[in-house]
Amino acid sequence: QLQLVESGGGLVQPGGSLRLICAASGTIYANDVIAWFRQAPGTERDFVASVTWRNNKKTYADSAKGRFTNSRDAAENTIYLRMTNLKPEDTAVYYCKLGYSIWGQGTQVTVSS
Fold first, then answer.
1. In this predicted model, what pLDDT tens digit does every residue of 90-107 receive, in sequence order?
2. Listed residue (49, 52, 34) closest to 90, CA to CA
3. Of 80, 91, 96, 113, which is most buried with the most CB atoms under 10 A?
């Protein structure tokens, strides 16, 4: 079964940038949608961004528009989330998700001075 592994999280100061990586170990099909979610302590897991594998169509949550960029490398079966102008409220565990039910283990992003 396909597995997802996230990396690239860390501690960054407000206004800084990070690039998260989601590497898929198996086959991603044309109609698959790969999404980024995040979950802060005590809150629900929220949608951040997504990309449709077939046509590279991207969508973003309002909180991500203008600051985050979602991209894919089809040859490497890898999805990236470039995050800029990070704010303390972006602090969360970030997960990638394939389709309805395949999740990665998450990567921690902490924005703090």
1. 999 999 999 888 999 999
2. 49
3. 96
